[in-house]
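cron nightly-structures :: item 1 of 1
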Amino acid sequence: MAISHRIRSRTPNADYWPGFVDAMATLLLVLVFLLSIFMLTQFFLAQSITGKDSALDRLRNQVSELADLLALAQLENTDLQSTVASLSSALSSAEDEQSRLAALLAEGAGSGDREAVLLSELDDERRISAQALAQVELVNQQLAALRRQLAALEQALEASEAKDRESDAQIADLGRRLNSALAQKVQELARYRSDFFARLKEALGNRDDIEVVGDRFVLQSEIFFASGSAEISPAGQRELRKIAVAIREITAEIPGDINWILRVDGHTDATPIRTSEFPSNWHLANARALSVVQYLIDGGVSERRLSSAGFAEFHPLVEGNGETANRRNRRIEFKLTER
């Protein structure tokens, strides 16, 4: 109301407020549209990664099954080769025995009975040799079929491994693209954070009780609250109105595809508090952060862009229990961060 009054006092014959409201509404619609596009992109990207992971798991299972089949086929191949070696040895022994019997037959050609016996034994050896040859031939056929099966399994395994490598490459490329996009958004947010802090300092003036520590804008609690209280003082309300204006301005400039929040952190000094309203420093720190957030919401800052947190005395800016350390540690921090 005070701002509107000052504007009217400077320009009594002009009313820019309806046009400003229309511009803000249009900007809000654009931001909502951009945010919707970003959320849809995130959703489809997550679905794509999930599908790639499922396909990769199926391929790995198939590779494992093919590897088991290959190991089994190699074991059967070893057994068949042992069988062939055994049959070959038996065949060689039978041929040696056949040669021995033929020699004996030649030596004992004058003895009819012995010749008949030797001929019978020779026929038996020949029959055994024929059976051994038939078994060797059968084993050779089985061995050839097994080798063909091994070749097919190896081809299937190579194809599965190639597909697995291709899926890994696609997932790795997708991850690099996602990380690059996230890094770009983080860099953009860091730039807007610097602009935001600069505007806050400009809005609040050159005060000794305000400082920037890393990525946080730090204000001493005495600016907003009396000692042991979470109710914002009139002077604190005036400062928070300036902060709310700065937040609204920077909100209008940050692209809608950057998902950010402004976190308000409450900190106390190490002096314990035990009252009916605040049984501990945790209660006081959280209550103060929540009071600031609620006042900013009342000042027109979007609820979805704000969050609050309390840290009690456990994250001091400076160590020690002196008055200077306590004054710096009793503070409210603003942190613009990605959600």
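cron nightly-structures :: done
Residues 205-338 form a domain with the 60s Ribosomal Protein L30; Chain: A; fold (CATH 3.30.1330.60).
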